[in-house]
Design goal:
The complex is a heterodimer. By secondary structure, chain A is an alpha+beta fold. Chain A has five helices and 13 strands. In chain A, the strands form three sheets. Chain A has a seven-stranded mixed beta barrel with strand order 5-12-9-10-7-6-13. Chain A starts with 5 loop residues before the first strand and ends in a 5-residue tail after the last helix. By secondary structure, chain B is α+β, with helices and mostly antiparallel strands. Chain B is about 15% helix and about 30% strand. Classes of the chains: A alpha+beta, B alpha+beta.
Chain lengths: ~230, ~325
């Protein structure tokens, strides 16, 4: 946790705290710890708090506090948290059916990397990822970091519709699409796991700071778990 | 049946309350009324709680029938409003009898109207709010826009005395606007010339504007960086994508994003912005943070005075 974080004005009733310029597990842990501390310290002065890869956006009630006061509290929290390391988050296993029929871009990635599509799947499932941020759509968790060999830029032309459960790669990030949506990420498989269910008390199986491991499953297991093709 | 039936949904009519706050951790947009000033006045005129659920009708076209006696107010954009085919007044409490039909035609100034009923619409909240965010399919009735055949329940409340907001107290909806901007975020990634260019140019509202953001068309604003690590987006944040055309992010904005941002427009100016239509004109002006805070406090006083007037003695 940097003792003197960079704090910028975001708007008339908001400021953004940067804990680093790059994403790393350490910076991400700092973001999590600061978000937690600020929720507690600011309580009902907060309108919302948006943690991301390396920053925390603080939206506050402008009639009851101001940028200077919030900045001071942010600095205090950072100083207090100094050496604090939050727990490593829970480990969530996400089953994935990796195949050309479930991941339209996995063969292209296999060719580009020289690993073949099975190699791409194996490498993707071999790493424990961290949830760095949630955004873009309800339940969309940004996971990092993908092995450089299978990192791939976004498609030049995004697809109009990516199906629910699609497992995808963009640069060194990976994610599971929680609902059908347009998208430009490279599709490598599909998961039968529900990543966002508004009817559940806890709508998401993962939270920022959690760890995710993808577990390869075959076609019949995928379908037995409720997956569709 | 104590409620209303939608006969025609119009281009975009959505149930809204003040918005869904505090759920950015799930990636949920706040939603809520694009023009909270007009929305709050609709509820105030009816003596409703400020968080009561109402309808935001964009570009008019909404038609509904009362299924019971109820009191109703329409605020916002200027438009011909008809009760059973006869003209009636905006910004004024209307008494509807069962079977009465209210129709919003097309706005002549501004583009968003707020239709509230005494007692508010009864809608089951999702994540603490009834605000409809179409992109997410959350809020309102199954996350959808209102359409013919929808029926809405109205909360029970004692009728109130009829009252109205005097014309000189009503917000104006001019076709051009100066959007005051508090510099922030990556504003240092823009050269002095780029900022000066932006602040001395006129922009037109793009037809591709929506509840997520208003896109401005005009001279491109060059930026020294392509993007940033995705970060939280404040209401009114002005992002500059690769084509240099500014986008003012509004109620249905994504919670995080990676385009460079120059700062954020004042909330009161964003309310006004959302009443502009494609082709209308905007220019941008920087405002120091202290002045922005004074402007905010002043706007609250004006809003409170209007609300007081709306609430009656």
């Amino acid at each position: 946790m940097p003792e003197d974080p960079q704090i910028e004005v975001a708007g008339e009733a908001s400021l953004i705290v940067y804990l680093g310029g790059d994403s790393s597990p350490e910076v991400s842990a700092g973001v999590q710890a600061l978000a937690l501390a600020l929720r507690e310290r600011l309580a009902d002065l907060l309108e919302d708090l948006i943690p991301s890869y390396a920053s925390v956006l603080v939206l506050f009630d402008p009639l009851r506090t101001d940028h200077d006061k919030i900045s001071a509290i942010v600095r205090e929290c950072c100083a207090e948290l100094g050496s604090f390391t939050p727990d490593s988050g829970s480990l969530v296993e996400v089953p994935v059916y990796y195949a050309p029929e479930s991941g339209a871009d996995i063969e292209a990635l296999g060719e580009r990397s020289g690993l073949g599509w099975r190699g791409v799947a194996e490498l993707h499932a071999s790493i424990e990822y961290r949830v760095y941020a949630v955004g873009f759509a309800p339940g969309f968790a940004y996971l990092g970091e993908v092995d450089e060999r299978i990192a791939a830029p976004r498609l030049a032309t995004p697809r109009k519709r990516v199906p629910q459960g699609a497992v995808a790669i963009a640069d060194r990030q990976t994610a599971v699409y929680p609902s059908p949506s347009p998208g430009g990420w490279n599709l490598i498989g599909r998961s039968p796991m529900c990543m966002f269910d508004a009817s559940r008390k806890d709508p998401m199986p993962v939270r920022v700071g959690d760890r995710v491991r993808f577990v390869p499953i075959d076609r019949s297991r995928y379908q037995a778990l409720g997956g569709t093709l | 049946m104590t409620g209303i039936s939608i006969l025609r949904g119009g281009p975009l009519s959505l149930l809204q309350d003040r918005g869904r706050f505090g759920r950015a951790d799930l990636g949920l947009s706040p939603g809520g009324p694009m023009d909270p000033v007009a929305a709050e006045l609709a509820n105030a005129l009816l003596g409703n709680d400020a968080s009561a659920t109402l309808i935001e009708a964009s570009f008019g076209g909404l038609e509904l029938r009362a299924d019971a006696a109820l009191q109703l107010v329409v605020t916002g954009a200027e438009l011909p409003l008809e009760l059973n085919g006869e003209p009636c007044a905006l910004w004024s409490v209307l008494n509807l009898a069962p079977g009465d039909v209210l129709r919003l035609h097309h706005p002549t100034r501004g583009c968003r109207n707020y239709l509230a009923v005494r007692g508010g619409f009864t809608v089951a909240p999702s994540f603490g709010s009834t605000a409809t965010v179409l992109r997410e399919g959350i809020g309102g009735i199954c996350g959808k826009a209102l359409q013919a055949g929808d029926r809405l329940e109205v909360g029970s409340a004692m009728p109130i005395e009829r009252r109205w907001l005097p014309p000189d107290r009503r917000p104006l909806y001019p076709r051009r606007l100066t959007l005051r901007v508090v510099l922030g975020y990556q504003h240092r990634a823009f050269s002095e010339e780029a900022l000066q260019g932006m602040f001395s140019s006129e922009y037109k509202i793009s037809p591709r504007s929506d509840r997520m953001g208003y896109r401005l068309e005009g001279p491109a604003v060059p930026c020294k960086i392509d993007g940033v690590l995705s970060e939280g987006i404040a209401p009114g944040a002005i992002q500059i994508p690769a084509d240099g055309q500014p986008i003012v992010l509004l109620r249905d904005r994504q919670t995080i994003g990676g385009y460079p941002k120059i700062g954020s427009a004042l909330s009161q100016d964003c309310s006004q912005l959302t009443q502009l239509r494609p082709g209308d004109t905007v220019n941008l002006a920087p405002i120091p943070l202290r002045a922005a805070r004074r402007a905010l406090a002043l706007a609250r006083v004006v809003d409170d005075a209007r609300r007081f007037e709306a609430l009656g003695p």
